[in-house]
Design goal:
Layout (H helix, E strand, L loop, with lengths): L1 E2 L5 E3 L7 H5 L16 E5 L8 E5 L5 E4 L5 E4 L4 E4 L4 E7 L7 E8 L1 E2 L16 E2 L26 E2 L3
Antiparallel strand pairs: 1-11, 2-3, 3-4, 4-7, 5-6, 5-8, 8-9, 10-12
Length: 161
């Protein structure tokens, strides 16, 4: 998934066909129905500098923004939060054991590879950010890797975990 630092983008099953299906295989497949067709709107942040984005949850299914130092903020439908390099978007569902306990089944981490984050002058910034995706799929209430995958390409900033 490529993000442009100057253009909003919708992230979800409709906008990245086959992407989430490929990531949520095996035990994580039961959570595919929790990823909406247009789950998130990700766009340039009004403040925060290069590589920072604003995330709007457009789904009834919650996500959590997890920042440095373990600080986490749950976003319900319509809620907006800031995402900086190193922060994660965690997709939340209910545990498979029927307890209703929340479980994080997918984590996307913003990984910034923009020149200004590598010691280059900001005037040489690329036109796009790159999203690397690391998947944690779990069928229990204890988040942990039960599947894995990586997507994306070079040249900017993006998600990974």
């Amino acid at each position: 998934i490529a993000l442009r630092p100057d253009t909003p983008m919708t992230v979800g099953r409709l906008h990245q066909p086959g992407f989430f299906e490929g990531l949520l295989e095996g035990p994580g497949q039961r959570y595919l129905c929790c990823v909406s067709r247009g789950h998130l709107e990700v766009g340039p942040a009004r403040r925060g500098g290069p590589g920072c984005f604003e995330v709007t949850n457009q789904s009834a299914n919650p996500v959590s923004l997890a920042g440095a130092g373990g600080v986490s903020r749950k976003l319900g439908k319509g809620d907006v939060g800031a995402l900086m390099p190193g922060d994660c978007v965690e997709f939340i569902g209910n545990a498979a054991d029927g307890s209703g306990a929340p479980v994080m089944y997918l984590r996307l981490e913003l990984v910034c590879d923009m020149p200004e984050h590598r010691g280059y002058p900001s005037t040489s910034a690329p036109t796009k950010a790159v999203v690397d995706v690391h998947v944690s799929a779990s069928s229990s209430s204890s988040p942990g890797p039960a599947g894995g995958g990586r997507g994306g390409g070079g040249g900017g900033g993006g998600f990974g975990g």
